[in-house]
Design a protein that fits this description.
Layout lengths: L5 H4 L5 H13 L10 H4 L8 E10 L4 H19 L10 H20 L8 E11 L2 E11 H35 L2 H17 L5 H17 L2 E4 L4 E4 L8 E6 L13 E9 L5 E9 L5 E4 L8 E9 L2 H8 L6 H12 L2 E9 L7 E8 L10 H12 L4 E3 L4 H4 L3 H12 L5 E15 L2 E14 L5 E13 L2 H23 L2
Parallel strand pairs: 5-11, 12-13, 12-14
Antiparallel strand pairs: 1-3, 2-3, 4-6, 6-9, 7-8, 7-10, 10-11, 14-15, 15-16
Helix pairs in contact: 4-5, 5-6, 6-7, 7-8, 7-9, 8-10, 11-14
Length: 497
């Protein structure tokens, strides 16, 4: 506890004011003829319960109110200096406000209600002294020691808390940099950058830029290494192996891995109407710095890419809400994070190419009567043969088209034995026919199934529509059915397991 006494206070009074007070003390008594009180020259010592403060002011024009105002200001200064808190250009607004509020309350107490005890502060004595060179006013204040110490501790805590909001994360980030934990270093630097802006410190932009650059530096030191690639698999079955990523703190993939690094996984999956959609999943690297991702069984064929990338969305989100003047630097940080990624390739094929398959589709006219044609079947055979399928067309048999799945399976097995393992069957029909100025527009639609002749399970079902336009009625009907068969075949090639 710092004691306030005359030896401490006198040096805080300006040199001119001291000379004036000394001259006044030597030349004239106080107003009303009272003798100069002892506390003017020797303020009371602090007690266990109270701290005393002295304020002195003078006015050369003899204006007592003006002198009292100077004394009040001096008293306020002495009390606030007792707090011992350094208010600098980098002090946060919140801390300055806490300090200023205290100073304002003290000033109001002294100036507006100086003779009455307000809270824990009261003016215990006032002495006015007129001299040949003006008037001097002395104020003696008593402050409850416990309350004053409590107030000082409160304001110091505000200062410490606000400073820690910036310097704390920045120091932690530097510590993580030194230990090679670059992900956590980046997160801490981003937190310090955000605090430097939201705490409204002076030089906020300098602090913000410094910490953003520190974060980018930390990110640049992360290494993402894919440990496998060119993975293969069959349609509808898990791939032959999982995708493996290792995250390390340098360019050596054999270096110790970094744990707890967030990673986002992107890959394509089958969506509605057989359209592909992007699926996103989040993971954390394990103790060895590994992310091992097992892709769900793919539902389409072809060569695809799966990507794992650094995920800093959580610490980036509050930064993205900052004013526009910061966005260029934030964009640079996002780009640095997006470069930390690994892309894997994998290929999914269908075993259907290896399975002997029969196909027949019955073409129907506008009255849904069999036309005795195999144009749709022809279109399917053309495409699937070109894709390497072991496929053959069965003779047109309209009676088989009316059978249930199970009855049809038994009929094919009975007639062809083990020649075929699967059968693709269905019907197609003319759904629209228009004629205008010698030209014909035909629309056909069809529905097919593919079943396993051993188990009876349905492997594929689809509905398609196709159109054709031309001047030959017979020619465009043939073309429409064949186009429908090709469209169905393309879908079969991609989706038949």
């Amino acid at each position: 506890m710092k004691k306030i006494n005359f030896k401490v206070i006198v040096p805080r009074i300006t040199g001119v004011l001291i000379l004036l007070l000394m001259a006044g003390c030597a030349s004239a008594p106080g107003t009303g003829g009272e003798s100069r009180p002892a506390w003017v020259d020797s303020p009371p010592a602090d007690t266990s319960d109270a701290v005393y403060f002295l304020g002195a002011g003078t006015d050369t024009a003899g204006n007592e109110a003006a002198a009292r105002q100077v004394a009040s200001s001096q008293l306020v200064s002495e009390i606030t200096k007792f707090l011992g808190v350094k208010v600098t250009s980098e002090t946060t607004v919140e801390a300055k406000d806490a300090y200023g509020e205290f100073e304002s309350n003290v000033s109001q107490t002294i100036n507006e209600q100086s003779s009455a005890k307000i809270g824990e502060l009261r003016i215990t004595d006032v002495y006015t002294e007129k001299t040949a060179s003006g008037v001097n006013v002395f104020l003696l204040a008593e402050y409850d020691k416990g309350a004053l110490l409590e107030e000082r501790a409160r304001i110091e805590a505000v200062f410490a808390e606000q400073e820690e909001a910036i310097s704390g994360p920045e120091k932690e980030g530097q510590g993580f940099m030194a230990s090679g934990d670059y992900h956590l270093a980046a997160v801490k630097f981003m937190a310090a950058a955000l605090a430097s802006v939201t705490s409204s410190v002076d030089n906020a932009e300098i602090k913000f830029e410094r910490n953003i650059n520190n974060a980018k530096d930390a990110i640049s030191r992360l290494r993402f290494t894919g440990l496998n690639n060119n993975i293969e698999g069959f349609l509808g079955q898990p791939l032959s192996e999982s995708f493996q990523l290792k995250i390390t703190a340098d360019d050596d993939s054999n270096a110790p891995g970094l744990s707890g690094v967030p990673v986002r996984v992107y890959y394509k999956a089958a969506g509605r109407n057989n359209r592909k959609r992007t699926v996103t999943e989040s993971y954390m690297s394990d103790r060895e710095g590994m992310v091992v991702f097992t892709r769900p069984a793919p539902q389409f064929t072809g060569r695809e890419t799966l990507t794992m990338t650094l995920d800093l969305s959580a610490p980036l989100e509050p930064l993205q809400n900052l004013p526009g003047k910061y966005l260029d630097q934030i964009d640079g940080l996002e780009q640095a994070a997006s470069q930390k990624k690994v892309s894997f390739t994998y290929e999914v094929v269908s075993r259907a190419r290896e399975v002997s398959t029969a196909v027949f589709v019955t073409d129907l006219d506008r009255g849904r009567n069999p036309m005795g044609r195999t144009d749709t079947t022809s279109g399917i055979l053309e495409i699937l043969s070109g894709e390497g399928f072991q496929i053959a067309g069965l003779p047109e048999n309209s009676s088989m088209a009316r059978l249930s799945d199970e009855a049809l399976r038994q009929a094919v097995v009975s007639r062809y034995g083990s020649t075929y393992e699967r059968v693709i069957y269905g019907t197609s029909e003319i759904s629209s026919f228009e004629e205008s100025d010698g030209a014909f527009l035909v629309q056909v639609s069809g529905s097919v199934n593919a079943i396993d002749l051993t188990t009876g399970s349905v492997l594929y079902s689809a509905n398609k529509t196709s159109r054709a336009r031309g001047t030959s009625e017979t020619g465009i009907i043939t073309q429409a059915f064949k186009n429908l068969g090709k469209s169905l075949a393309e879908d079969l090639a991609n989706n038949l397991p």
